[in-house]
DNA sequence: TACCAGAGGAG
DNA sequence: AAATCCTCTGGTA
């Protein structure tokens, strides 16, 4: 038994050799494949295949040109498979072939060689990864930073913390003494701690390296320090150095044969948090607070020589590596599962977005079926596709205000089930063979009834595999086994739910605006039909969004009666739906308040508050506003006590006014979504970030700015300061009352039916009270 | 006051 | 580098 961790190729004796990096039960194994050659396809102009073949055969370094029959979207065609000597020959020869007179286009000429081999061989990475005990190591570095952000040209690494799955825990540091900590090891200098790290990874035969932001901080920094101190970071299985790869705007740190997995982008993808510091993510996963320090003070503390404070830094550093390892053990299984399903290497898969993941899966399945991959679109085509948008889901205007005894119906996997039911696929759309059929979808397109579409077929396979796993889960007792199955079904769900978005993704190979558009149009049709149907049966639809509808039964207050009526109606609706589609009874809610589209709150049967879209759910509102809104919602929906709500608000306003609110509760988190210079109109978070940058902090696209509105300045942007530079109590109470707490709370009370005048009175009065 | 860029949520 | 729909804020004229 073995598991495939990594793959690449090298050139040897003028030949490309694929290397497969396995972990076996006894250790490591590198398998070399010497008889696989790079190739790509050329599609000839009609009837010109022989002519094209002759032309191509003349090209230098072309080994062979063979005719092959492939499926291209709607039909079978004859293409030429051009085999070349080395992977680096492909781009050159592809350019030449593309320009030949009888060549319509080239295909599959951009697939990296090692990935090409994995697709063709059907090898699956991370298979058996649960059975083989993978050795996982986490590390983290702390750096001297006397001018704010550290500079790897001059600022040394102070310590490296290390924690692995076999239980070894260390902080390696230098230039200190007299501190007693179990995990501490003091070495000669910076060079020695880097060396120790490299040696440890090698000696302990680590299989997977995990970091938190190692792609863009720890590894680039380590690599540069290593270069300057003449300690190359040679931690690859083959002794190679860690390699920094460009990945769009960011870097990826790649270690040959010992996949490095960065948990920071993964956490961003999986969790919905206000910010994504290691501490936040650790808290989200474990429910425990992690030791934290102000890293801005690192240099100051280090220079002070204060042993107690340095001891705190050492403990903090250790906890970083420990937390990273713990997070990894929690998150990696999902990524192993995704890697197995899509066939991508774990290094790629763990850094892939939804589009990339779906595409990798599709390419594997396409190869198996003899389907020619569509090319990746050029930037120009991407631009054209972006401008061609289409209509999406339907949102029913809510009946504003409070409703009792709500029932929620929703379609189980609406879009996937539509794609399957209607066979929606670029290869089945508007086929010749079914063009005389009477049924047309709402977009005017029809889909083949004879041939099963490629994507519906894959989607069905994903859903069926998931169902099988769910059935197993229902009877499985063993906890370990249950966890494994649950992760797997979740991975399948993620992929199935990404398929519709993939149709509309401008960079997709199998992009089809028509398919995306038709799927959404049918979705609208089904939810609208459902709304009509419930209303014809005595219910009222008070709100609905895309695949869901909240309904109430007028003149009936008994829960049992309402639920019974709803369930029988559900049965009726379902009996008329296509087989793959199902409307489900999602829940009963004693009370709810609907504010606007996509903004509402409910109380469930266990008195739990569910909030959608309102400020409470948004990272770009201060805690004080969010918590107050939450309390007001509880007072109204659960306690049914508007007076209580009013007194909650008054008390919070008093506390704000008295300067009693902590910075933590005043912080607003907003992401920088573009280059700082690219803003036409910059908000307070950009103003705050710019000021902080002048004081030595670094901010770039993608970062989340945590800031507070202080007293100093005229506009809100003027007053915005990054939280690190704000002292407790220095905040603009008027802003927090009038722009945070009151809007969040008044929206609720307004929907409750308080007249605008009354509320203005409340607002003013409360404000007046305090002035 | 009106408009728009920007952000982040829902499904 | 998955889609669209939608609300709301703060800057600007």
Characterize the structure shown.
The protein has 771 residues and is of the alpha+beta class. The protein contains 24 helices and 25 strands. Strands 16-18-19-17-20-21-22 form a seven-stranded antiparallel sheet. The protein has a six-stranded mixed sheet with strand order 11-10-9-8-12-15, sandwiched between helices. Strand 2 (15-24) and strand 3 (28-33) form a beta hairpin. The longest helix is centred in the middle third of the chain and has 36 residues, at 307-342. The protein is globular. It starts with a strand and ends with a helix. The structure holds a DNA duplex (11 and 13 nucleotides).
Please summarize what this structure is.
It contains 24 helices and 25 strands. With 771 residues, it is α+β, with helices and mostly antiparallel strands.
How are the secondary structure elements laid out?
Blueprint: E1 2-12, E2 15-24, E3 28-33, E4 39-44, H1 49-57, E5 62-72, E6 75-84, H2 89-99, E7 103-107, H3 113-121, E8 136-143, E9 157-164, E10 169-174, E11 184-187, H4 190-203, E12 208-211, H5 214-228, E13 243-247, E14 250-254, E15 260-262, H6 263-270, H7 278-286, H8 298-304, H9 307-342, H10 346-349, H11 354-369, H12 379-387, E16 395-396, E17 401-411, H13 414-422, H14 454-475, H15 479-503, H16 513-536, E18 540-545, E19 548-552, H17 559-575, E20 583-596, E21 599-603, E22 609-612, H18 623-638, H19 642-657, H20 663-666, E23 668-671, H21 684-694, E24 704-709, H22 716-719, E25 720-722, H23 733-751, H24 756-770
Parallel strand pairs: 8-12, 10-11, 12-15
Antiparallel strand pairs: 1-2, 2-3, 4-6, 4-7, 5-6, 8-9, 9-10, 13-14, 16-18, 17-19, 17-20, 18-19, 20-21, 21-22, 23-24, 24-25
The structure holds a DNA duplex (11 and 13 nucleotides).
